[in-house]
Design goal:
Blueprint: H1 3-17, H2 42-53, H3 57-63, E1 65-68, H4 74-80, E2 84-87, H5 101-112, E3 120-123, H6 141-147, H7 150-166, E4 171-172, H8 196-211, E5 223-227, E6 241-244, H9 246-253, H10 255-262, E7 267-270, E8 274-277, E9 283-286, H11 291-301, E10 307-309, H12 327-332, E11 337-338, H13 343-355, H14 361-377, H15 400-410, E12 412-416, E13 427-431, H16 438-442, H17 465-472, E14 477-481, E15 494-500, H18 519-522, H19 524-533, E16 540-545, H20 553-557, E17 561-564, H21 573-579, E18 593-594, E19 602-604
Parallel strand pairs: 1-2, 1-11, 2-3, 3-4, 5-7, 6-8, 7-10, 13-14, 13-15, 15-16, 16-17
Antiparallel strand pairs: 8-9, 12-17, 18-19
The protein binds alpha-D-glucopyranose.
């Protein structure tokens, strides 16, 4: 991005959002100091200093080490005294996908009993407690961005905290605060929006809802991630290089961190991505080794006094580092290292690095001080996991009404020229691969890391869209044919087609630079299902489930009504509440909707959305077939 366009972009951003405090009237020219909602407390600091003074170097390094639950026993906790454990996506106590809340709490208590300093247990509760069978899964962040409702975000974060406490866990690696600039990124749906101001407001509401002041039994530690610029990598390549001026980092990519720090977020996770400063041309390289942005900016200028955690084995990506040794990351300001497997060697190597002077003891003491500060603020001392009023309670994993309300607010109506609202009592034909597929409805980070290798049986609490339509269409009939083939459409009043993407997470979801954004290139079965039922004299209402906006002119042309539903999660009735007219459409596009398969042409701008009272006609759209895109294209 050229300097001129950067300045223009920042000017536009500040003009668009100048009315709110988060974005200065003029673009910020330096990193602001942020006053946290959680101030330092002298008595706590004195307690921490005393503890640190009494710890051995090995104890200190162990506090900085986060290990995967798959690889440790309570005896290991006793022996090594790690500071933290995590369960990665698709990791459960005893590797049992069906582990109950009580099973989770039992493991948490068994670890707690062996730890002299209480453990933090981190989990990717990124749309509800999304690893746990029976938990309510909220819409992924892309849908929440369409709702433009910070209060809803706070409620969801609070409900997520309760669900996490139900399993004896006390830390969520959420919210993701990426300002996503290229929909080809496989993590687009983990971002709320392309609008930095909205992300600022959401970050503040989310952290406040999840952490509160740590007085509520459902409060847990939140994580602002992935610092910084994860959503701005060139061509949307996951873990790629973000070409941005420092002014753009400040005025665009940092807005979520301003909001999160204002609300007192206690942890920040570093991004796998790299930064190249387009203002100076300097290639800073991997964020995990960027002492300027972590030490000098986040902790120095912005005043962050919680702790910084690395991502999964991310330290090995720094030149000269390995999974089990990286003085560069620690010296850059990373305080806790996510070492899922190689934790024994990591502790030995890091102790050695301090002993030979590669890591100053002052850096170790600062890291441990920050970790203990967060643990004390979070009230971990003296409270075993099973003491929580939510511990072991399956009902605390659920928030069905809230999720149903959220789903309804996320839906964006892009075309409304027939079929809506559905009328109960009708003869409804339902087609499409995703109508009765809770995995497609929930997306990645659902039960498993990728959201795959699951079945509807893994979602015992919730409703697929098909179930929801059957439950709502009282007095009518509902017939389901996934492919829409061999069905006489004339026998029905209306067709509902539920199509879209299949689950993915992280880089596995990237659309490669030479691929197009055309949905039908990747999922030809969907246009096939639509063509089987379209133009047969009955209205076709398409519900499109996806983790991004895509080029879909062919699908829109084959539909009389077209609803972007994003990744709604377990509460399908939130969709039918709107399709049957009990509620009106409220959502607007969180990202621009592409109007061409490659270059950045826009069909509908961010902020666009129709409703039952706000009509517009979509003319027949030109559909450009293309075998792929020139590699260098940026969307
Ligand atoms: C993953 C993700 C990060 C997640 C972490 C732990 O690689 O980048 O968002 O919190 O590992 O699962």
């Amino acid at each position: 991005m050229s300097l001129l366009s950067t300045v223009a972009r920042i000017a536009l951003v500040s003009i668009l959002f100048a009315s709110t405090p988060a974005l200065a009237k003029e673009p910020l020219t330096d990193w602001p100091h942020i006053t946290s909602a959680i101030p330092q407390d002298a008595a706590t600091e004195a307690k921490i200093a005393k503890m640190v003074a009494g710890m051995s170097l090995r104890d200190k390094v162990a506090q900085m080490t986060q290990v995967e639950i798959k690889t440790v026993t309570p005896q290991d906790i006793r022996t090594y005294q790690f500071g933290s454990v995590l369960n990665g996506g698709g990791s459960w106590p005893n590797m049992d996908k069906y582990a109950t809340a009580k099973d989770w709490v039992a493991m948490a208590d068994s670890f707690h009993a062996q730890a002299k300093i209480p453990l933090l247990w981190g989990t990717d509760a990124v749309h509800g407690h999304s690893n746990v069978v029976g938990a309510t899964l909220f819409p992924h962040n892309i849908g929440l961005g369409a709702a433009r409702d910070p209060e809803l975000i706070g409620d969801i974060a609070a409900a997520t905290g309760k669900a996490v406490r139900a399993t004896g866990v006390n830390w969520a690696f959420a919210p993701t605060l990426a300002v996503v600039e290229d929909g080809r990124w496989g993590r687009t749906y983990e971002g709320f929006s392309s609008d930095p101001q909205l992300i600022h407001d959401y970050a503040r509401a989310y952290v406040d809802g999840m952490q509160g002041n740590f007085q509520g039994p459902g409060n847990i530690v939140a994580t602002a991630k992935h610092y910084i610029g994860d959503g701005g990598t060139a061509q949307g390549i996951d873990q790629g290089i973000t070409p941005a001026s420092e002014a753009e980092l400040i005025n665009v990519h940092a807005q979520g961190y301003f909001g999160a720090l204002e609300a007192g977020v206690q942890t920040v996770m570093v991004s796998y991505s790299s930064w190249t400063d387009t203002g100076t041309g300097k290639a800073y390289g991997k964020m995990h080794g960027n002492g300027y942005l972590v030490n000098d900016v986040l902790k120095g200028k912005m005043g962050f006094d919680g702790f910084v955690i690395s991502d999964w084995n991310a330290i090995e990506q720094i030149p000269g580092c390995t999974k089990d040794r990286c003085p560069q990351a620690i010296n850059a300001g990373v305080d806790m290292i996510m070492v899922p497997f190689d934790w024994k060697a990591f502790i030995d190597n890091t102790v050695a690095d301090v002993e030979i002077g590669d890591i100053p003891m002052s850096r170790i003491d600062d890291a441990v001080t920050r970790i203990l500060r967060v643990k004390m603020r979070a009230g971990l001392f003296g409270a075993k996991p099973s003491a929580s009023p939510y511990a072991g309670k399956p009902q605390a994993l659920q928030a069905r009404d809230l999720a149903r309300r959220a789903v309804a607010e996320t839906l964006v109506l892009l075309k409304n020229e027939g079929g809506l609202p559905l009328k109960a009592g009708a003869k409804i034909l339902v087609v499409g691969k995703s109508a009765n597929n809770m995995a497609n409805q929930s997306g990645g980070w659902s039960i498993t890391w990728q959201g795959t290798e699951t079945s509807n049986a893994d979602y015992p609490v919730g409703d697929s869209l098909l179930t929801a339509i059957k439950a709502t269409n009282t007095g009518g009939t509902v017939t389901y044919s996934a492919a829409g083939a061999d069905v006489d459409v004339s026998q029905f009043d209306v067709v509902v087609a539920v199509i879209g993407e299949t689950p993915y997470a992280e880089g596995k979801g990237d659309i490669k630079p030479d691929q197009s954004l055309a949905h039908s290139d990747r999922y030809p079965e969907d246009i096939a299902a639509l063509n089987a039922v379209s133009g047969k004299g009955k209205p076709v209402v398409t519900v499109f489930e996806s983790g991004r906006t895509v080029y879909a002119n062919d699908l829109i042309n084959a539909s009389d009504a077209f609803v972007a539903a994003w990744l709604p999660g377990t509460e399908g009735k939130g969709v039918t509440d709107v399709l049957f007219g009990q509620k009106d459409f409220k959502g607007v596009l969180p990202f621009a909707w592409p109007g061409a398969p490659c270059e950045g042409r826009t069909l509908f701008p961010a902020g666009y959305g129709l409703s039952y009272t706000n009509q517009a006609t979509v003319t027949t759209l030109e559909f450009i077939e293309t075998p792929g895109c020139p590699h260098a294209q940026s969307h």
